[in-house]
């Protein structure tokens, strides 16, 4: 038998081994045959000198420790443990979760109330400033009138800029709330589907 035939047959015989271990064993016998050939022994004699494929495979497989596969555990034990943990931990995790949720909602609500309050204040300042400009102008107070008009224009410009930012932030919040609602709804739907499949 030629070296290639021998090594191919050996690899097939050891196909039950992990690839790395199989390659190591085949390479060991390849080097052994190559050493014999370098010593001047003809290839077929060098191959015959290492033993038969069946004998080598039997020896290698018998030397390996028996692998005992543990029976697969069903996921029921893990689910029961998780449910038990959730139920027993409820007095701890639920108030913390609720406090976190309320804090986040309160912070977001406060931010948007403050944002729109500043927007309305700037807009009111612009309208009031224009009204004051005309009152001061008709009473002959030109310097304060033009100062008030400048302040009203600045206030109006800031109100316009802030309006676009406030609208964008409000839309982003609306999209975020909608995404959270969709996620929760999808989670509840999947949970319901899983419960129906189990039943």
Tell me about this structure.
- The chain has 199 residues and is mostly helical.
- The chain has two domains: 61 residues, no CATH class; 107 residues.
- The protein contains six helices and no strands.
- The chain is elongated.
- The model has no long low-confidence stretch (mean pLDDT 84).
Task: Write a brief structural summary.
By secondary structure, the chain is mainly α. The chain has helices spanning 3-13, 19-38, 43-50, 53-63, 76-138, 142-198.
Overall spatial form: elongated
SS class:
mainly alpha
How many domain modules?
A: 2
Rounded Rg: 41 Å
Order of helices and strands: HHHHHH
Looking at how many chains there are and whether they match, the oligomeric state comes to single chain
Strand content: under 5%
Give a quick account of the main beta sheet: strands, pairing sense, barrel closure.
Answer: none
Q: Helical percent range?
A: over 70%
Tally of DSSP β-strands: 0
Spatial separation of the terminal alpha carbons: 62 Å
Mean pLDDT: 84
Weakly predicted, low-confidence segments: none
Secondary-structure map:
Layout lengths: L2 H11 L5 H20 L4 H8 L2 H11 L12 H63 L3 H57 L1
Question: What tags apply to this protein structure?
Answer:
2 domains, 0% strand, 199 residues, mainly alpha
């Amino acid at each position: 038998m030629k070296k290639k035939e021998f090594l191919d047959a050996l690899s097939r015989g050891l196909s039950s081994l992990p690839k790395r271990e199989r390659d190591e064993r085949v390479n060991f016998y390849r080097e052994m045959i190559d050493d014999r050939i370098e010593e001047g022994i003809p290839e077929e004699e060098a191959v015959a000198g290492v033993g038969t494929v069946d004998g080598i495979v039997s020896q290698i497989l018998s030397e390996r420790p028996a692998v005992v596969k543990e029976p697969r555990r069903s996921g029921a034990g893990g689910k029961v443990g998780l449910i038990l943990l959730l139920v027993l931990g409820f007095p701890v995790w639920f108030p913390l979760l609720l406090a976190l949720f309320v804090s986040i909602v309160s912070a977001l609500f406060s931010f948007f109330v403050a944002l729109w309050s500043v927007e309305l204040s700037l807009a009111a300042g612009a309208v009031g400033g224009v009204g004051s400009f005309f009152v001061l102008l008709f009473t002959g107070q030109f310097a304060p009138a033009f100062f008030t008009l400048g302040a009203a224009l600045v206030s109006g410009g800031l109100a316009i800029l802030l309006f676009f930012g406030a609208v964008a932030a409000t839309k982003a919040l609306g999209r975020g709330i909608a995404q959270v609602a969709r996620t929760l709804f999808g989670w509840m739907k999947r949970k319901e589907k899983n419960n129906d499949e189990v039943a």
